[in-house]
Amino acid sequence: MSDRALDVVEFLLTAHIYSENRQLDANDLPPRYRRVFWAESEEEGEVGGVERPLVATEKTARQATGADDPWEAVSDLMFTQKEEFAGRITLTQPEMALDWLVQRADRDRFATNPTLAAAVEDRDDVDVTHEEARKSNRPIQADRVWIDSLLESYFDAEEDAEMLDLVSVRAPEEIEMTLDDLVLTTDQEGEIEKIVKAIEHRDYLAEIGLREIGKLLFVGPPGTGKTTVSRALAHELGLPFVEVKLSMITSQYLGETAKNVDKTFEVARRLSPCILFIDEFDSVAKTRRSDEHAALKRAVNTLLKCIDEISLIRDDVLLIGATNHPDQLDSAAWRRFDEIVNFPKPDYQMRADILRIVTRRMDIAEFDPEAVAEKTEGLTGSDLRLVLREAVLEALTEERMSLTQEDILDAVSDFEERDNLKNMDMIDGDQETLIAGDGGSSGNEENGHSHDHDHDHGHTHTHD
């Protein structure tokens, strides 16, 4: 029996069981089905949802399973039928369909589908429970359709358009990097483990009075993985990721800065549980001891007040701030965070791990990552990724899709030459010095350090 037939029968059964069992809710549907059946709310200010009954048609089956011709995949089964005019596919004998699927599908198919698990948990031939399957299923609040629906229902498209343009919201499914792909330092692993436990045991922490927890500050040079680790944590925990760069808010809409800071936290509360990531934290907080514009002063006070009021335990919002310039933060800013996590530049072993992981899909003759690591002291994960990109592009100019160790080392030398340009006087006879670029941080190139499980420190390959 083809996998397509299994996929389509699972979809038909899920639609039927969910429609019949009113005790099930949208969190009992796998995300791939929720997207298909999501209905936008007709009431202004209301979030959309999944409405019963779930009607399985050729179109919805195709969207949910990826089968080009869903009916062809199941047309020869005794318990299926198709209504030609409407294109609806139904089960004539649902119990027979369930028995058929149990006999042919592996356990994972039931363990990742709470609706099916609810229908089979009392059977002796399937070792899976509804509770187990529900825990493994991403909650609807983390789905893209739910996120978009909520933002549309709570925020005015015209009035709040400028602020929402400055806030990026990613669903967990849209984040490719996971914690398993990363190599973390021992300290980073320890802090992440603690915060994961805090999220799992929020009720216990509330009971014993530990409510001021879940506010982290990531500190380190550009390109060391602060943003990437934060996103990977959102993917791991199945939480929406709300990202805002404070410098954009303050520079573009100076008169509305305090209002926009406040609304950023409102977005996070509406999307909770979620992670709120505040990048370039120093861009606002440093103004407390400067003579900057009064609007920025108000923004700082608003920011610190919002941080005080947000809570992982009460609001289900994990706050992560990131800064490349910790020296520009004052004591009032530091006090708002209960944990400080250091993101240093990678050492020799970290660089070797990064190189090994980033090149795992590349064809490189006699590649020696340790030898390259010795030549790249001071480079971040972002820098190393740029080095490898340059080597690949250089080879392509010679119509080659395979690399050599020499290609990599030549790219390292080229990168160092370009990096040195930022300290050069670019115009002879002119006293002005032109800065060539950002050097090590390489603009917006994402970085970090990917995971070799034999080592307990390192970084990913995305940006801060």
What's the topology here?
Layout: H1 3-20, H2 31-37, E1 38-39, E2 49-50, H3 58-65, H4 70-74, E3 80-83, E4 88-91, H5 94-104, H6 107-111, H7 114-120, H8 130-136, H9 144-154, H10 161-165, E5 167-170, H11 186-200, H12 202-207, E6 215-219, H13 226-237, E7 241-245, H14 246-252, H15 257-271, E8 274-279, H16 282-285, H17 294-309, H18 312-315, E9 317-323, H19 331-334, E10 339-342, H20 348-358, E11 364-365, H21 369-374, H22 381-397, E12 403-404, H23 405-420
Helix pairs in contact: 1-5, 2-3, 7-8, 15-17, 20-22, 22-23
Describe this structure in words.
The chain has 464 residues and is α/β, with parallel strands linked by helices. It has three domains: 3-137, no CATH class; 144-341, Rossmann fold; 348-441, Helicase, Ruva Protein, domain 3 (Orthogonal Bundle), CATH 1.10.8.60. It contains 23 helices and twelve strands. It has helices at residues 3-20, 31-37, 58-65, 70-74, 94-104, 107-111, 114-120, 130-136, 144-154, 161-165, 186-200, 202-207, 226-237, 246-252, 257-271, 282-285, 294-309, 312-315, 331-334, 348-358, 369-374, 381-397, 405-420, and strands spanning 38-39, 49-50, 80-83, 88-91, 167-170, 215-219, 241-245, 274-279, 317-323, 339-342, 364-365, 403-404. The strands form four sheets. Strands 5-7-8-9-6-10 form a six-stranded mixed β-sheet, with helices on both faces. A two-stranded antiparallel ribbon has the order 1-2. Strands 3-4 form a two-stranded antiparallel ribbon. Helix 1 crosses helix 5 (94-104), helix 2 packs antiparallel against helix 3 and helix 22 (381-397) packs across helix 23. The longest helix has 18 residues, at 3-20. It is globular and about 70 Å long. It starts with a helix and ends in a 44-residue tail after the last helix. Mean pLDDT is 84; it is low at 426-458 and 460-464.
